[in-house]
Amino acid sequence: MTSTVPALDTRTAEGSALQAVFLDMDGTLVDTEGFWWDVEVDVFARLGHTLDESWRHVVVGGPMTRSAGFLIEATGADITLAELSVLLNQGFEERIETALPLMPGATRLLAELAEHQVPTALVSASHRRIIDRVLASLGPQHFRLSVAGDEVARTKPHPDPYLLAAAGLGVDPTRCAVVEDTATGVASAEAAGCHVVAVPSVAPIAPAARRTVVSSLEEVDLTFLRGLMTQKR
């Protein structure tokens, strides 16, 4: 059915336009960064190891190959990366089957982007099996495409996921806004040339050129995202 709501005019005073919005998943739209850490703690406890709380800042926001690899090396656990990845994914799936809390403002922002027909993509370092589970709750109709961490040769902090999303939507990444919650995700989006809104979930993120830091998604709406396009490099 064709929407009766006209697409929002995303032209800026300088004639540029917001072409698309890319959203991270864990810690940005869904309050699950803590879930991953809890699962990692549980899995390693069963392996006979205690994780240091300070390691949480090291593993947050990164691909599983990096975070799991770091924890194996840090603990000396007798497990392969492939075996650990299976256990972590299984543990996370069990967690989100019983609860999948959304971040404040997430539902409203997704509805607004959909209402005004803004091309939107979900871009995550999580594996496809996890993304599909979460999409069922977020509403797959809110996204024209999604990019998973196990679908790119190099995931975050490399620019590949966001470049792939831009190519899939046929847009210029420099005319796109990205919403991220970790330094790893921010680095990926900035390397792709996107304008970034950082909503820190675990570790602080400092403002920078083409990077705006807010405390909550409740501060972000389409007018706000459109305004990012006037920022200079």
Automatic annotation (TrEMBL):
SUPFAM superfamilies found in the cross-reference section: HAD-like
Pfam family, one: Hydrolase
Protein's UniProt name: HAD family phosphatase
